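Need the bound structure for iron/sulfur cluster, inputs here:
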Amino acid sequence: MNKAAAKKGKKIKEIAIREAWCKGCAICVEVCPKQVLVMDHLVAKVANLEACIVCGRCELFCPDFCIEVIPDVQDNS
Ligand code: SF4
Ligand code: SF4
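Answer from helper R.:
Posting the output first, comments after.
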């Protein structure tokens, strides 16, 4: 599981990618309006989480249910 999380005020957002399920189609990269995601050796990765606007397109369009966008993660740090 490749997780990325960023602080946004008191709450943080997180994009969780189930790498084992990813088939490397790059649809998530293409549908993201903010270039948050990149392909790395045929696996999707989060490259710029700060730019994510939590639109949910990557999660919606991934045909293999690899991505989970979590807008409000409790910041315990
Ligand atoms: S939620 Fe939207 S902005 Fe964030 S990574 Fe997914 S497609 Fe890109
Ligand atoms: S859309 Fe899903 S299967 Fe395709 S590259 Fe992105 S995470 Fe992997």
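Comments: The longest strand covers residues 67-74. The pocket of iron/sulfur cluster (ligand 2) is lined by residues 17, 22-28, 44, 62, 64, 66-67 (CB under 6 Å).
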